[in-house]
Structures are given as C-alpha cells and as structure tokens.
Amino acid sequence: MSEQNLYAVIWDVDGTLVDTGELHFQAWVQLAQDLKMPFTRDDFTATFGRRNPEIIGALFPGHTPEEIAQLGEQKELYYRAEARHGIDLLPGVRELLDGLKAAGYKQALGSSAPHKNLEMITEITESLPYFQAIVGMEDTKRGKPDPEVFLVAAQRMGVPPQNCLVMEDAVAGIEAATAGGMKSIAITFVGHHSEDSLRAAGANLVVPSLEGITVETINRLLSRS
Ligand SMILES: [Mg+2]
C-alpha cells in the first residue's frame, strides 16, 4: 500500500485518552512541598500539558539543568505512585480505538509525558496493542505547540501528515496539530480549555466527549473515501 493511502490517528494522552489531571496535580504539590514552595490550582492550569523542564524552570527557578532533570524524575515518581490506584480510558475512547483499528487506521500516542508514564498508562488500561508508535517527552526537543511530537509519530508510522488526525484536549496541542498540517478533534471533557480557544487554535471539531464519535466522522474530516 502506498504511503498516500495510509491514514492515522495520533492521540494525546493526558486529558484525551485518560484523565490524569488530579494525579499530576497531587504529584506537583508533593514536589513543591519538598522544595518548600507553593503550588496552586492556578499554577497547575497555567502549566498543564507542558514538558517538565519548562514547568520547573517557570515555577521553581534557580536550578541547574541536572537539578531540573532530578526534580522532574521525582515528580514522575510521585505521579506513578498516585496512578497505581487506577486509571480508566475516557468515555468513548475504547470504542473508537477498536473502530479505527478495524478500519485499518494506524494509531500512535503523541504526548509530553515520559515513556515510563506512557508504558504504565497503556498497561493499566490494556491499550498497548492499538498503537504502532509511542512518542513521548524523550523523543522531542521542543514541546507542544511545536508540531515535533506529532510529526515524529507520523514519520514512525510512515503516514503523511496530511493523512493524520490528532485527538487533543489542550490549545497547545491543537496548535501543534495545525502547525504540523494535520486535522484535529478537540475534546472538552476534562475541561481545561474553552471551546472558542480550541476552535481558534484550528480544531476541525470540538466535542464534549468521544462518545458517539465514529470512524465515519474521522473519515470525513480526513476526506478519506
Ligand atoms: Mg492533554
């Protein structure tokens, strides 16, 4: 099959595939307590979806790159300890993963999270077999809204960017999809971003959840016949 006939869906993870927001919030609070620094809900909302080095640099300034890397690892240790208590796929996700697989779509994860988190999430939710590529924090130099994470995922699947559709919950992620020449669906279920801001970032469709979204919807957005 030629590349032009291949199509793919690239999934953001946090807030799109699963809701891990509260787990991340609690992990940042624990890290901030170690540093005797504040960490508020507003800090969380302002930084959610960004890569750890950027968040730590903004909120806990004055550390060397090595210290920043260590603090990021400690935060992820706290996060994975929280997550072991349970994570579920968000509404409609499993049905769509199944439908897309049956329809011959390639699927990937495109996330700002480290690979250990992605391994844990795909293991707990039993979703690993759906994905032909998993792109995480270690695979990119620039975080969303730079399109790098999605372009790397497309390249690894061998699918041209214009045949890719991105699932996202965040404005920075929709901007990344748009910058990469990809279509996108924004999901407001977790609700960090307004419908207007997601549309302005280039989302082709904004939905409250993926319940009721079918392969036909995605075929139409990608002009796949
Ligand atoms: Mg997200």
UniProtKB/TrEMBL annotation:
<dbReference type="InterPro" id="IPR006439">
    <property type="entry name" value="HAD-SF_hydro_IA"/>
</dbReference>
<dbReference type="InterPro" id="IPR051806">
    <property type="entry name" value="HAD-like_SPP"/>
</dbReference>
<dbReference type="InterPro" id="IPR036412">
    <property type="entry name" value="HAD-like_sf"/>
</dbReference>
<dbReference type="InterPro" id="IPR023198">
    <property type="entry name" value="PGP-like_dom2"/>
</dbReference>
<dbReference type="InterPro" id="IPR023214">
    <property type="entry name" value="HAD_sf"/>
</dbReference>
<protein>
    <submittedName>
        <fullName>HAD family phosphatase</fullName>
    </submittedName>
</protein>
<dbReference type="Pfam" id="PF00702">
    <property type="entry name" value="Hydrolase"/>
</dbReference>
<dbReference type="GO" id="GO:0050308">
    <property type="term" value="F:sugar-phosphatase activity"/>
</dbReference>
